[in-house]
Specification:
The protein has 604 residues and is α/β, with parallel strands linked by helices. The chain has 3 domains: 244 residues, Glutamine Phosphoribosylpyrophosphate, subunit 1, domain 1, CATH 3.60.20.10; 187 residues, Rossmann fold; 142 residues, Glucose-6-phosphate isomerase like protein, domain 1 (Rossmann fold). It contains 18 helices and 24 strands. α3 crosses α4 and α15 packs across α18. The protein is globular, with a radius of gyration of 26 Å.
Length: 604
């Protein structure tokens, strides 16, 4: 969830950029940087970690851009590592010989461009895809001596999803911009000639009133004399509330985070999902050498992601996989053998029980991997390797996008391991890769679906409890659906394997027991249909979620027909999250900060 800021004007540019980056901290990042252009001189500052580290570097330099009577240009960036580790060298802005660029998104054809430019004599210093942009611009400028033409030629060569700001000594009064798939806004400042850029509203509020939210394919050049757009634009008025802006107009952070899952899973897959394979630069091919079992350890929502992954590791990697609740694992005197790969999952990387379990595994000599959303957290420092989720900061206490990105990352790991082990047929791999590419569509929240969940929610405010039931990977999804409802509505809910209902829980069935049935078309549909029919015969109130009509349901949420059960999984995940949230809203609860809960559980 990288962030971009930019400024043209006569104020203290470095302070404007730093403050703008602070407003984007909620998106998540692991490094930051700014570049300032004044009097044909470019000053660049970069730092790993928090923006305060960058700010200290800037403050230590007392000579940079101090003449505020003359025009100063500046661009800034918060980076979430995708290509290359979080280092100062890989942090933005990236440099050529006389130009700098910041970029959100991914350049899919960067390897081909890098090879071409290297043969032409360009020297690359980072591991990022972004660096090809500035070298490509200078490659064309060296031919044409025309910055406008060179920028147009550059963006025509780029494939992928990206937003770009570029400054160059060859045109020291201009910022070149491009938006294709990653958000970018341009605002007119409150003082004459001022222009601001940002990847969301928050950095612009209080500094400007009029804004353009660029559409895909829009590019142009800005200077103190105005903005040239490649297409006609529609100016809008900025909101005045920063918290509202951080929420992107949504009522709650949880709601915003449900909606942005379709975007963050793309970030999770960047650089990892290739045309014909899965690549994890963080892992070596000998990671499975001598390994006969995978043991996953986690808590809460992360435990449910781990349970989901256990089905996928055994199905696709053909390797035994067990899942442990970290708080129990620590005290059971577990048998740890060196042929076990130990995987811990945590949004924060600080979950106390999971961290201690990881330390036990390390002391036992096991290879370990942390699947985590926060770089430089405790787990990332202890584990042998770390796979970052790249979900951005998750402000809602009830996890949403962390779960979806955990599941996507673990699914990709199962494919990666299956390929290494040579047990995954080429045709099967192709199907799985294509399915991964379709996940963002399954996670897209349709207005009709959200409205259906909102209207149904009023019928499920009372009763003596909920059963969420499913089979296979839809069992851990049922657990996650029940947990979401408990966390934010305070209603009693339990997740069960559908086949277990007749082994005791069905005794509770009556009209005041609500059953949320996950009924995917492509995984054991007939089996779960039979289980739900048993509950219906005992007068349980049934809410069926399925692409196939179910005549015995009291309520029915119709999901799209797909060709893979994991696409059904993610669409049903959206339904469960929205359903729980809307019930909580009707009950008047604090959706983002439910009682008794903390975002990061750092105690036993």
């Amino acid at each position: 969830m990288c962030g971009i800021v930019g400024y043209i004007g006569k104020k203290d540019t470095k302070s404007i950029l730093i403050e703008g980056l602070k407003e984007l901290e909620y998106r998540g990042y692991d490094s930051a940087g700014i570049a300032l252009l004044q009097n044909d001189k470019i000053e660049v500052f970069k730092a790993v970690g928090k923006i305060k580290n960058l700010e200290e570097k800037v403050l230590q330099n007392t000579t940079c851009c101090t003449n505020f009577d003359t025009l100063t240009l500046g661009i800034g960036h918060t980076r979430w590592a995708t290509h290359g580790k979080p280092t100062e060298l890989n942090a933005h802005p990236h440099l050529g010989v006389y130009s700098y660029v910041v970029h959100n998104g991914i350049i899919e054809n960067y390897k081909e461009l890098k090879e071409e430019l290297t043969l032409s004599g360009h020297i690359f210093v980072s591991q990022t895809d972004t660096e090809v942009i500035v070298h490509l611009f200078e490659y064309y400028f060296n031919q044409y001596n025309d910055a406008n033409r060179s920028f147009k030629e550059t963006i025509e060569r780029l494939h992928g999803a990206y937003s770009i700001l570029l400054i160059t000594k060859s045109e020291p009064n201009k910022i070149f911009f491009m938006k294709h798939g990653s958000p970018l806004a341009i605002a007119k400042g409150n003082d004459d000639g001022e222009i601001y850029f940002a990847s969301s509203d928050a950095p612009l509020i209080g500094l400007a009133n009029d804004v353009v939210y660029l559409e895909d394919g829009m590019s142009g050049v800005a200077s103190i004399y105005g903005i040239e757009f490649s297409h006609s634009v529609q100016w809008s008025t900025l909101p005045t509330n920063k918290l509202f802006a951080q929420k992107n107009g949504f009522r709650f952070f949880m709601e915003k985070e449900i909606y942005e899952q379709k975007d963050v899973v793309v970030d999770s897959m960047m650089g990892r999902l290739k045309d014909d394979t899965i690549v994890f630069d963080e892992l070596t091919h000998d990671i499975l050498e001598g390994i006969n079992e995978i043991k996953i350890c986690a808590c809460g929502t992360s435990y449910h992601a781990g349970l989901t992954a256990s089905y996928l590791f055994e199905r696709l990697s053909k390797i035994r996989c067990t899942v442990e609740i970290a708080s129990e694992f620590r005290y059971k005197e577990p048998l740890l053998t060196p042929d076990t790969l130990f995987i811990v999952i945590s949004q924060s990387g600080e979950t106390a029980d999971t961290l201690e379990a990881l330390k036990m595994a390390k002391n036992g000599g096991l290879k370990s991997i942390a699947v985590c959303n926060v770089d430089n957290s405790s787990m990332t420092r202890v584990a042998d390797a770390t796979i970052l989720l790249r979900a951005g900061i998750e402000k809602g206490v009830a996890s949403t996008k962390a779960f979806s990105t955990q599941t996507v990352v673990l699914w990709m790991m199962s494919l990666y391991f299956g390929t290494i082990r040579g047990v995954l047929a080429k045709e099967k791999l192709e199907i799985e890769l294509q399915t991964l590419r379709e996940i963002p569509n399954s996670l897209k929240v349709e207005d009709k679906l959200h409205e259906k969940c909102r209207r149904l929610s009023k019928r499920y405010l009372h009763g003596h409890g909920f059963f969420f039931i499913g089979r296979d990977v839809f069992f851990p999804l049922a657990l996650e659906g029940a947990l979401k409802l408990k966390e934010i509505s305070y209603l009693h809910a339990e997740g069960y394997p559908a086949g277990e209902m007749k082994h005791g829980p069905i005794a509770l069935a009556d009209p005041e027991l609500f059953t949320i049935a996950l009924m995917p078309q492509h995984l054991h549909y007939d089996k779960i249909k039979s289980n739900v029919e048993e509950l219906s015969a005992r007068d349980s109130t049934i809410c069926a979620i399925s692409p196939l009509p179910f005549e015995l349901s009291d309520d029915f949420i119709n999901t799209k027909k797909t060709n893979h059960y994991m696409l059904e999984f993610f669409e049903m995940l959206i339904v469960l999250q929205l359903f729980s949230m809307e019930i909580s809203v009707r009950l008047g609860n604090d959706v983002d900060m439910p009682r008794n809960l903390a975002k990061s559980v750092t105690v036993e």
